[in-house]
């Protein structure tokens, strides 16, 4: 219990420190006192620029990280696979591809991108299930099918980059994870859909715990397993899709954060889900802040930093999974 409380205190403290540091650092630098005074007085021009440009980016980073991390927790519970992550098994790339395709053909539907992203994510999730099912779900087969689907959707999405039209430039964020130039409208969209998804995931936490049991045992305890899996999958796809539509493709968040969170607060989803949300928010904000400050004025996208970190971690998890299957 002390370890869980201490972990929450530490991650919240780090999150607050990261938010403050991120707001103060960049092309415009301000001190903490100037920042606070400017926010309340509205007379500091630099703080006004930070308020209009940097604060939306910070909030989008926080909500994107939280949504992707919790999506990973839900997918791992539904698929009983510790390697499941929206960015790894193709849900994020499917969301990006469908929204990109529709908005390229019909540019007037740009503001419906979250809806099209959801349909794309749901399609990818269905394909992963359907193509990996063979007298049950093998964890390794599921992740390999997911990687193949992710590669296919990613390749198709990136092919749009070479078309060079205005529409493609406008929706490029759906496939490239560009967190610059975010607006308060972006914050509003991901805030509404993301917070709805996070709230629903908390309400479904007891079902996630029961899915960790054998299906027969869960049914005997009164859980309608198929309905539970479907509803939890819908919420996971919603979170991953809205994060992709606003924040772009960022892989490995739903893989890294849940595993680290389980070592700190355990596997009870009533605790794991909120802790993963905080951890995911901290991870993406830290990656974005590092990416825009370490080689300033050149920026490194958060997705590239996550790929550098997440790739070796996925290899580690695959080797660990092979050892388990071998046993």
Give a summary of the structure in a few sentences.
Helices cover 77% and strands 0% of the residues.
Poorly predicted segments: 166-171
The dominant shape is globular
Strand content: under 5%
What is the distance, rounded to the nearest whole angstrom, between the alpha carbons of the first and last residues?
33 Å
Mean pLDDT: 82
Main pleated sheet:
none
Work out the radius of gyration. 20 Å
Structural class: mainly alpha
How many DSSP-defined strands? 0
Question: DSSP helix count?
Answer: 15
Helix content: over 70%
What string, H for helix and E for strand, traces the elements in order?
Answer: HHHHHHHHHHHHHHH
List keywords for this structure.
327 residues
Which secondary structure elements does this structure contain, and how are they paired or packed?
Layout: H1 2-24, H2 32-41, H3 45-79, H4 91-105, H5 113-132, H6 139-159, H7 166-170, H8 173-176, H9 184-203, H10 205-211, H11 215-220, H12 225-247, H13 253-265, H14 269-293, H15 302-326
Helix pairs in contact: 1-14, 2-3, 3-9, 3-12, 3-13, 3-14, 4-5, 4-6, 4-12, 5-6, 5-12, 9-12, 13-14, 14-15
């Amino acid at each position: 219990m002390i370890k869980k409380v201490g972990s929450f205190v530490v991650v919240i403290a780090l999150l607050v420190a990261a938010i403050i540091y991120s707001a103060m650092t960049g092309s415009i630098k301000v001190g903490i006192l100037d920042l606070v005074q400017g926010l309340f007085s509205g007379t500091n021009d630099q703080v006004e620029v930070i308020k209009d440009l940097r604060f939306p980016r910070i909030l989008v980073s926080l909500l994107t990280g939280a949504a992707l991390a919790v999506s990973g927790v839900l997918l791992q519970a539904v698929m009983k696979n510790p390697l499941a992550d929206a960015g790894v098994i193709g849900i994020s790339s499917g969301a990006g591809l469908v929204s990109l395709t529709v908005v390229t053909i019909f540019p007037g539907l740009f503001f419906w991108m979250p809806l099209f992203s959801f349909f794309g994510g749901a399609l990818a999730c269905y394909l992963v299930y359907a193509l990996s099912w063979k007298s049950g779900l093998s964890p390794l087969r599921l992740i390999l099918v997911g990687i193949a689907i992710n590669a296919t959707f990613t390749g198709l999405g990136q092919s749009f980059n070479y078309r060079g039209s205005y529409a493609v430039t406008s929706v490029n964020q759906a496939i490239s994870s560009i967190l610059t130039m975010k607006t308060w409208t972006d914050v509003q969209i991901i805030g509404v859909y993301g917070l709805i998804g996070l709230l629903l995931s908390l309400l479904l936490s007891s079902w996630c715990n029961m899915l960790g049991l054998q299906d027969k045992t869960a049914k005997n305890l009164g859980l309608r397993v198929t309905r539970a899996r479907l509803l939890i999958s819908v919420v996971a796809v919603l979170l991953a899709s809205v994060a992709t539509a606003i924040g772009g493709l960022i892989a490995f968040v739903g893989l890294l954060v849940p595993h680290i969170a389980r070592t700190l607060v355990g596997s009870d989803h009533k605790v794991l889900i909120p802790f993963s949300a905080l951890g995911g928010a901290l991870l993406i904000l830290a990656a974005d802040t590092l990416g825009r400050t370490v080689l300033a004025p050149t920026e490194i996208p958060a997705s590239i930093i996550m790929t550098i970190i997440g790739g070796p971690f996925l290899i580690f998890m695959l080797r660990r999974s092979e050892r388990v299957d071998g046993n």
